[in-house]
Structures are given as C-alpha cells and as structure tokens.
C-alpha cells in the first residue's frame, strides 16, 4: 500500500467551526486562535466568511479578524464568499484563496441557498472569474457528496456532475465533503473517484465530518487513493446542524495523530495544536471534541 | 481491495466494559444487558470474569449473571479466567469459551499480574489444558500489542513472541489488543502480521480501543489484511484506566455502522443495539460513548 509522504491540512475551525456557534465570539479570540494555529504549523487556514450578517452574525467581524491576524509568508488564508457582493467585500482583506460552494444534492441546494445546483454554479461563475483575474486562488467546497439530510444517499454520478460544473466555471481545486458524516470508506472512495473524472488527485481534498465516528477511517481510505489534502477543525469545532448534539468536523488533533502515527508528515506540532484547541474550547466554555486532545490532556494530568 | 463478506463480533461490554465501573451494577441489569445484546444479534458475548472479588468486586456476581441469562443456541458465552481456581469456579456455569490473557509488554505484565510474560503463560498452561479437556474453547487476549502505558511503543517481535507462547500452551485463537488505544493503521497491521506467524488469520481478532479515536481506521486496516473477527463494547463501555476521562473500548455501534456501510454483514440490528446501549448508559447514569448512537438518537429526536 502506498501512502503519501506528506499531507497538507486546511484548518477550517475559525470559519466552518465557529459559524455554528450560537454565541458569537469576540474578534480578539478568533484572531488569537488563528495566531495559535499558524504557530502550531498550520499552513492553510479558512479564516472567515463574507456572508450577510443577517444570516451568519457569527462572521460579521470578518474585516476585523482578517486585519487583526499577523499574516505569515507561506500560510494561505482563505475565506468563504457566497456571491459577488461577498467577494468584493473580501477583496479589501486580501485573502489568498476564496471558497465557493455547491451541493451534490438538489434538495440540499434548494434548502440551503434556495436555488438549483446548476443555478448556484452559474451564480458563482462571475465570482470565480473575478477572483482569478485578481490573482486569488479558488477552491470549491462540494457538500453532501455521500449523503444528504433530505435526500439520503447521494450517487457518485451527482458528485461527478457537480465536479464537472465546478471545473467548468474555473474552480481550481475541490473539497469532497461528507457534510453530515454518514460516509464509510467505500462510499467515500466512490465520491472521490467521481470527482477525479474532472480533477487530478492533487487538487482533491477530503472533508469528512465525524458525526458517526467514521472520519478517520474515511481519511485512511482517501489516503489509499492518493488524496493528500484534508480539512479539519481544531477541537472538532462546529457541531452538526442536522443532528443536534452530535459531532461535526473531524478534529484536527485526531487527524494529525493518525497521520503522524503512519509516518506521514504534516509540519504540525501536535502539542501546540492541543493547546490551541484548549484555548478555543475554554473560550467556548465546553470540553474539546477531540479524542486525542482528551487523551493527551489526561496524560499530562 | 478485498474485504470479508461478513464479520463476527465479540461483545465485551458486560465484562471488559463493566469491570472498570466504580459502582458495581446489580446482576439483574447485567443479565438484561446480555439479553438485549443477544436479541440485537450478537453471537459472541464476553459475560463475566472469575477473578477474586477482592480485586474485581464488579464481577463478584459471576454465577448469578451466568445463571440468569437465557442461553441461546448459536450464541457463544465466554468468561475470563485468571487462573485454575477461577477456571474451576467458571466450570459450574458452563461457559462456551474461556479467555486467558497475556501482555506483549514485560512492564505491563509485571504491574498488572505481578509476573513475567513467560511466567504468566506457564501459569495459564494448566488452565488451557483443563478447558480443552472439558470441551471448552480457549481464546487468548494479548494486551499492549502496539503500545504500553509503561514501556511506550511495543515492537512486533514482542507480539510474535507472545503469540508463540499462546500457541505453545494450546490457546486456539487470539485477540490483538491495542489496550491503550495508541495504535494507528500501519502499527496495528504490523502487530497482526506478527501474530500471523503463529495463528492463521481466521483465528486472529482485532480488539482496538478508541482512546485516540483511531479504532475504526485500525479496523479498516485489519479488514484489509483479512481479519474478520473484532471485539467491541456497546456504548463504548469501559473507560481507559491509563488516561482518566478518556475513552476505552471502541463502541459496538460505531463498528457495526462502519461494517454495514461497507456492505459487510454482521447479523446485528443496529437500532436494537443502540437501544441496548441506551439501556446500559441510563443504568450507569451517563451519556453513551458511541458517536453513532448519539447521532442516531439525535435523529430520532
């Protein structure tokens, strides 16, 4: 079995994680989190989004957060932009990459952004063009690539279709997201395979939620296909809005432990990462969602 | 990639899980748990142990529990026997299988049972002989096959040695246990490989703790080697005595979800299993340790 020698992680905690928090955190806490994450060795961080504060009040401080972090050379700061207006707002903050998104499920697309999958891609086309013209990289988040809270299982053909639409509008790389964490290894491999009809494996990343505890086995299955880009959230930030009380994003600590245990380099200092997770968990006033953090903290005593 | 068409699970919750509970549960609750587990489709259940109640008061009701369960044809009831005295006590309760144990770590063997690995196997030899003579199957639990709380990483050669000793005293099949849950896929595969120097793959089972959240990825790695016997604990019963507050055994629900998701048959009804887990979690007055149970219960609303 061949495994990649190194893996690159996109830390999505500050955006994907914190956007689900009922009580928005102060910008200073978010800035401190990003600082700690980059100090721990993360080289890609999804910092914030430029969605209307009416819909996502948690990210209303996007300018403040982007202005507050000390930008480091070699670190890629990405932001979510839902439309041209959001992109224009983001532009002032000089993100290295913008994230556009689409679902592999028609029902999810309708419920989430009130339009069809095809329409959502048409709407993103000018955003992608504008970003590329401004020299900003573009990543596409493909949600519900395995299962959907409304439709149930999603066939690989739908993933292939979405990946094709992403490619057609100019998206440079894509995330295969198991948004509700229902995936298991063979299903996740089929979704990745479908994506690879349009993107080479180096441009495909795995974004697995741990709702059913399957994220790391799905990661192993993806690694075995040659995937070497993954997304995760420190302390497992971000619950699952489709199953209250359940886990959301896989914890970065758990993913790093897996990778290091297999001899795969990440450039991340696990202890510093656990400290970053403790910092944000304390700020939120709740225990970490990372099993590795719990075990290591218990061992520290 | 070839995967087994079916997997056989040994449910260890009633013994390995409950023996770590500070407050012993009433025998009636344990009996009800075993009943529910077999009703959910479990065909191997580790019911209790015959260790001195001075050391393990939680299992002092072994006779009562074994007498109380309605034995079903086709279900294998196993019990842990630490020595000849324990075996003789167990005999009256007609177990289908006894479990003897040994560590791949010298330090763990000394701290846990106060003798060397070789001595522990010598002590078990007459127990194994007596069991086989009585027509009772014998399984050997090999602990610390990946890591040890005292010695750290355990090289595969130590696992090979322990498996050889188990084989020499007549143990019919063995569990490769990652007792403290520190293993990752390649390390676990090396421990299994070492075991296979003495046992064919059909006689090797995986027993992975989820302390670091790695149990299911280790399971996937073991499945890929042809292992089709696994052990787990409903609701993730049994914490980790070496890292207070951390998780112990992998939850049976999480394992079953993985297997079913991959099209691998287990004969288990996941919903009934979740109910069994809810029953015992309620009896213990704490939330389930199973992510699948949490997600499914959240979905039930």
Question: What would you note in describing this structure?
Answer:
The structure is a homodimer of 301-residue chains. Chain A is an alpha/beta fold. The first copy, chain A, has one domain (8-300): Aldolase class I (TIM Barrel), CATH 3.20.20.70. Chain A is 42% helix and 16% strand. The mean pLDDT of chain A is 96. The interface between A and B is large, with 39 and 39 residues. Chains A, B: Pfam families: HMGL-like. Chains A, B: Pathway: Metabolic intermediate metabolism; (S)-3-hydroxy-3-methylglutaryl-CoA degradation; acetoacetate from (S)-3-hydroxy-3-methylglutaryl-CoA: step 1/1. Chains A, B: This is hydroxymethylglutaryl-CoA lyase.
> Largest interface, with Cβ-Cβ < 8 Å?
A-B, 39 and 39 residues
CATH topology of chain A: TIM Barrel
The strand order across the widest sheet of chain A is 1-2-3-4-5-8-9-10
The assigned structural class of chain A equals alpha/beta
Query: CATH superfamily assignment of chain A?
Result: Aldolase class I
Radius of gyration of chain A, taken over Cα atoms and rounded to an integer in Å = 18 Å
How far is the first residue's CA from the last residue's CA of chain A? Answer: 38 Å
What characteristic shape of chain A results from the CA principal axes?
A: globular
> What is the chains' assembly state?
homodimer
How much strand content do the residues of chain A show? 15-25%
**Any idea of the CATH class of chain A?**
Alpha Beta
Count of folded domains of chain A: 1
- Secondary structure: helix percent of chain A: 40-55%
pLDDT < 50 runs, ≥5 residues of chain A: none
| Architecture per CATH nomenclature, i.e. the level-2 architecture of chain A | Alpha-Beta Barrel
> What is the N-to-C succession of helices and strands of chain A?
EHHEHEHEHHEEEHEHEHEHHH
Count of DSSP H/I helices of chain A = 12
């Amino acid at each position: 079995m061949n495994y990649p020698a190194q893996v690159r992680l996109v830390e999505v905690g500050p955006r994907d994680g914190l956007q689900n928090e009922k009580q928005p955190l102060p910008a200073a806490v978010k800035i401190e989190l990003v600082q700690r994450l980059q100090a721990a060795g993360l080289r890609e961080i999804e910092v914030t989004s430029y969605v209307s504060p009416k819909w996502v009040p948690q990210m209303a401080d996007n300018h403040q957060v982007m202005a507050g972090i000390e930008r480091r050379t070699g670190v890629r700061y990405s932001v979510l932009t839902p439309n041209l207006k959001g992109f224009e707002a983001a532009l002032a903050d000089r993100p290295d990459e913008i994230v556009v998104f689409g679902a592999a499920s028609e029902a999810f697309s309708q419920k989430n952004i009130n339009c069809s999958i095809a329409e959502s891609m048409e709407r993103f086309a000018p955003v992608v063009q504008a970003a590329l013209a401004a020299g900003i990289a573009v990543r596409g988040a493909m949600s519900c690539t395995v299962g959907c809270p409304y439709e149930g299982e999603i066939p690989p053909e739908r993933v292939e279709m979405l990946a094709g639409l992403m490619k057609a509008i100019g998206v440079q790389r894509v995330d295969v997201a198991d948004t509700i964490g229902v995936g298991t290894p063979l299903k996740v491999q089929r979704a990745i395979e479908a994506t690879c009809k349009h993107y080479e494996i180096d441009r495909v990343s795995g974004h697995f939620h741990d709702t059913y505890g399957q994220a790391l086995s799905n990661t192993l299955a993806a690694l075995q296909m040659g995937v070497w880009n993954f997304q995760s959230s420190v302390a497992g930030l971000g619950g699952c809005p489709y199953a209250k009380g359940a886990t959301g994003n896989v914890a970065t600590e758990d993913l790093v432990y897996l990778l290091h245990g297999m001899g795969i380099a990440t450039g991340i200092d696990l202890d510093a990462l656990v400290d970053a997770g403790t910092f944000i968990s304390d700020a939120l006033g709740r225990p970490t969602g990372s099993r590795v953090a719990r075990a290591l903290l218990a061992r520290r005593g």
